C-alpha cells in the first residue's frame, strides 16, 4: 500500500517517479526518448490536467472556507468530510472510501475533531466500535462547502461555457462510475 500522504497528494507519485528517474540517471539515448515524445506525453496526459484542475478547485475552496471563518481547514481534511455519511461512519469505512490506512485516517479524524467538525460516538450496533459523526459546526461547514463548490463550478462554466461544463461533469461521472466497477 502507498504511503497515506502520497494517497492524499497523488501528484507526489509523479514527483517521486521523476526523482527516481533522475537519480537512476537513465540515458535518454538508450530509452530512445525524443523531445517529440515528451511533448506528446505532456499534451496527452489527462492525469496532469485532472490534477491541476483539482488543485485549483481545492485552492479556491480553501480560500472561500477561510473567508467563511474556517481558517484551519486543510486539503487533507477533505478525505473525511467528503466520505462521511450524514448518519456517521466507522473509521474503517472512511479509510476504505478514501483509500487510506486506518492509522492515517485516525490521525485526520483527530485533527478534524479538534477543529470541532466531527465527534466520535459509540456505535449502537457494536459497543466496541465508534462512529464518526458531523457536529453542528461540521454540518454548517458542509452546507457552506456545497455553496462554495457551486460558486467554483459557476466560475469554471464562465471560462468554458455552461454546455461544456455540463458535458465535462457527465463525462467525469461516467468515467468514475466505470472505474468503480472494475
Helix content: 55-70%
* Share in β-strands: 5-15%
CATH superfamily name?
Winged helix-like DNA-binding domain superfamily/Winged helix DNA-binding domain
> Residue ranges: pLDDT <50 for 5 or more in a row?
1-24
Annotation, overall tally of beta strands: 3
Rg from C-alpha positions?
A: 20 Å
As laid out across the biggest beta sheet, the strand order is 1-3-2
- Domains, number: 1
Please, what is the average pLDDT? 85
Named CATH architecture: Orthogonal Bundle
CATH topology: Arc Repressor Mutant, subunit A
Outline type: globular
Name the CATH class.
Mainly Alpha
What can you tell me about this protein's structure?
- The protein has 10 helices and 3 strands; from the N terminus they run ααααααβααββαα.
- A hairpin with a 2-residue loop joins strand 2 and strand 3.
- The protein has a 3-stranded antiparallel beta sheet with strand order 1-3-2.
- The chain is globular, with a radius of gyration of 20 Å.
- Helix 5 packs across helix 9.
- With 182 residues, it is mainly α.
- Helix content is 69%, strand content 9%.
- It has one domain: Arc Repressor Mutant, subunit A (Orthogonal Bundle), CATH 1.10.10.10.
- The N terminus is likely disordered.
Amino acid at each position: 500500500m502507498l504511503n497515506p500522504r502520497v494517497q492524499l497528494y497523488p501528484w507526489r507519485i509523479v514527483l517521486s517517479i521523476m526523482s527516481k528517474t533522475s537519480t537512476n540517471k537513465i540515458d535518454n539515448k538508450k530509452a530512445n526518448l525524443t523531445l517529440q515524445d515528451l511533448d506528446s506525453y505532456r499534451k496527452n496526459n489527462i492525469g496532469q490536467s485532472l490534477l491541476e484542475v483539482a488543485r485549483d478547485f481545492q485552492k479556491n475552496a480553501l480560500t472561500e472556507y477561510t473567508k467563511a471563518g474556517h481558517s484551519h481547514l486543510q486539503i487533507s481534511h477533505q478525505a473525511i468530510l467528503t466520505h462521511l455519511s450524514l448518519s456517521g461512519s466507522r473509521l474503517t469505512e472512511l479509510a476504505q472510501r478514501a483509500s487510506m490506512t486506518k492509522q492515517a485516517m485516525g490521525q485526520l479524524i483527530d485533527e478534524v475533531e479538534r477543529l470541532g467538525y466531527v465527534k466520535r460516538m459509540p456505535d449502537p450496533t457494536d459497543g466496541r466500535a465508534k462512529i464518526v459523526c458531523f457536529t453542528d459546526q461540521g454540518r454548517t461547514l458542509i452546507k457552506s462547502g456545497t455553496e462554495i463548490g457551486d460558486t467554483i463550478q459557476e466560475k469554471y462554466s464562465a471560462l468554458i461555457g455552461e454546455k461544456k461544463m455540463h458535458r465535462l461533469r457527465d463525462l467525469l461521472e461516467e468515467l468514475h462510475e466505470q472505474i468503480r466497477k472494475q
